[in-house]
Amino acid sequence: MIDALLAKEHLRTVGLGGNCLSIVDNHQYVLLLWARAAQELGEPLTLVSVDYHPDTNPPFWLQAYQKAMAIDPLREEVLVEKFERRVLDEIDPQNLDTLAAKMSLMRNDEHINTGMTLGYLRDYHMINCMEKHLYATGTHYLVPEAHFGSLKNSAFEAAGFWVQAFLEGLEGPLVLDVDLDYFMRPTDFNYDPAAMTAFGALCRRASHITSARSQSYFEHLRRESFSMADCEEKFIALMRQILEED
Known about the structure:
alpha/beta
């Protein structure tokens, strides 16, 4: 069921040196890849995500909220939690087909905390351009507007994410996830090895690398005229430069 579902989601896997990059259309479907990786490795992953949006809404929040508001707006908070839990209780984290069966209920900003709740992720670091949430789990980092679209060291530093210190303290497998709606101009993909050591280190440390096309958001957020296909190919080319360089 999972492979058929991912195939409908433009699943594309590109070999990159000793690793690979898996790309989907809608961001929530990377959760299936993370879940499979966690099962194969026998332990949860730590996620580093680079995205325009924070993507850390609670599991199945929107469908639960809409259902609650339709039934009784005055009991919205209680009903939302009840409806979220009802869906989660029907998922066996060890049986990925049960997760795949519920993916149609998940929005593209709910996969990270769903992964945390189901035990596929042990922690996450969310580098984004919109909000610096403070939740009980995970950490958010806000990229200043002057650095939107950048993968240079200066962007990570400006957001307060110190990659070297993070990697030195990291235990267990790392999944690196990059949403293509983060990129706004073709020059964002210009490779500067000296200025991209932090992102390069994340790429080399990751056991799995995932990405999402998020086309409607990409089209809305881009600041220069280039296509989704160009963005995808330029990102792949950049990753090849990083992971296949001598």
